[in-house]
Design brief:
The chain has 12 helices and 8 strands. α3 runs antiparallel to α4 and α3 crosses α5. The protein is elongated and about 135 Å long. The longest helix has about 30 residues. The protein has a 5-stranded antiparallel β-sheet. It is of the alpha+beta class. It folds into 3 domains: about 160 residues, no CATH class; about 70 residues, Roll (SH3 type barrels); about 90 residues, Alpha-Beta Plaits (2-Layer Sandwich), CATH 3.30.70.
């Protein structure tokens, strides 16, 4: 009987003190408190959101409305933090256990705060789109990403400081590691800097049609940290390192204000001077009067008898269309070709084609005798 009483005394002692120095009943009660906060989390979130929405509806800006909807998930995390806080308070921990519980609650609070900051950056980033007047949209996007990463790093450093982990030695070690990495990854940093220069100088943007001399021609699909994706006209993507785009001549066709037509039109040598003048004047009249072509006041426009070629008299046609769209330009050029053919044929002339005259002084009446080398039997 005495042994049984002694065993029961051990059970009671373990129940009260041997689980982190805390009564088992308190642990069960703390667990119930935490579960209770989890159960009311949805109701709590709805109540808080309704209250915040009623406040922001009184404002004229839509920015706070967007921020409230984005903060829904961090707000749902608040009951979890409260549950951990009240549960640890009920446990009445002492010593190192109390310190661990306090750090855990502080870490959860810091996590919730910086999570909210990162989420709020999304609607605030729309305000930064006004910077697109100064910078390119891609560079603004880079800035937003950099700010978001900076907030995450500050949040991580805050949590590490809560647990007594010094961030300065980590940063110093990371700096040494970064120097070592930089020595082995020079091309990566060169491409990164080149990408920033491309965006800062506004060489091109997404959707622009560019030609990189000796590399590729196509449409810019994405400007990344290391490389730029250019989709060729056969729809194949090409990843070009940013250093190639920074150090090589790049033609941005999307920056054209007008699109050029430059032809050499060869007419027959039998064309008279009056016919040449008629052809020239009618071609010039069509270009000047047509609304599809840019005015000679704005761009250089020439229709001139240019030179005497080997088999034709060349007329130079140099003009610009108002549109820069490739399909529309092709259609205008086609209509111009039809009119030029009508003008040339209407003037009684024709288009010359390459020809060559061969003058032979005499033609032998007989074929030359073939030379047959002698054989051994003949010798």
């Amino acid at each position: 009987m005495d042994n049984l009483i002694e065993f029961w005394a051990l059970v009671v002692d373990v129940w009260k003190n041997d689980v982190a120095g805390t009564d088992m009943g308190r642990i069960l009660a703390a667990t119930g408190i935490f579960i209770g906060f989890l159960l009311v989390r949805k109701l709590f979130t709805q109540f808080i959101l309704l209250w915040i929405k009623s406040v922001v509806k009184k404002t004229s800006t839509l920015l706070d409305d967007a921020a409230v909807s984005i903060l829904e998930e961090p707000i749902r995390f608040i009951p979890v933090v409260l549950g951990v806080f009240f549960a640890t308070q009920h446990l009445q921990l002492v010593g190192i256990y109390a310190e661990i519980a306090d750090n855990a609650v502080r870490s959860l609070i810091a996590f919730a705060i910086f999570w909210g900051f990162v989420r709020v950056l999304r609607p605030i980033s729309h305000l930064m789109t006004r910077l697109e007047k100064v910078f390119t949209p891609e560079l603004v996007e880079w800035l937003i990403k950099a700010i978001r990463i900076a907030v995450m790093l500050i949040g991580a450093a805050t949590i590490l400081q809560i647990w007594g982990i010094q961030v300065a030695p980590i940063i110093a070690g990371a700096g040494l590691f970064g120097v070592a990495v930089a020595l082995g990854a020079q091309d990566l940093f060169k491409n990164l800097i080149a990408g920033m220069l491309i965006l800062g100088e506004k060489r091109f943007r997404k959707g622009d049609w560019i030609r990189v001399e000796g590399v590729v021609e196509g449409t810019v699909e994405n400007i990344g940290f290391r490389s730029t994706i250019i989709r060729r006209f056969d729809k194949a993507p090409v990843m070009v390192p940013n250093t190639n785009l920074s150090d090589t001549a790049v033609t941005n066709f999307s920056g054209m204000t007008h699109r050029r037509i430059y032809w050499k039109i060869g007419v027959e040598y039998r064309t008279t001077v009056d016919q040449l003048r008629q052809i020239r004047d009618e071609m010039e009249h069509y270009i000047v009067e047509s609304p599809e072509f840019a005015s000679p006041k704005d761009v250089s426009t020439f229709v001139r008898i240019d030179r005497f070629s080997d088999s034709s008299i060349d007329i130079m046609l140099y003009c610009f269309t108002k549109t820069t769209n490739w399909g529309e330009w092709l259609e205008i050029k086609e209509q111009l070709a039809f009119h030029i053919k009508q003008i040339v044929e209407g003037a009684g002339s024709g288009f010359a084609f390459p020809s060559q005259s061969l003058y032979i002084e005499a033609i032998p009446s007989e074929r030359p005798e073939l030379f047959v080398p002698p054989t051994e039997t003949q010798t």
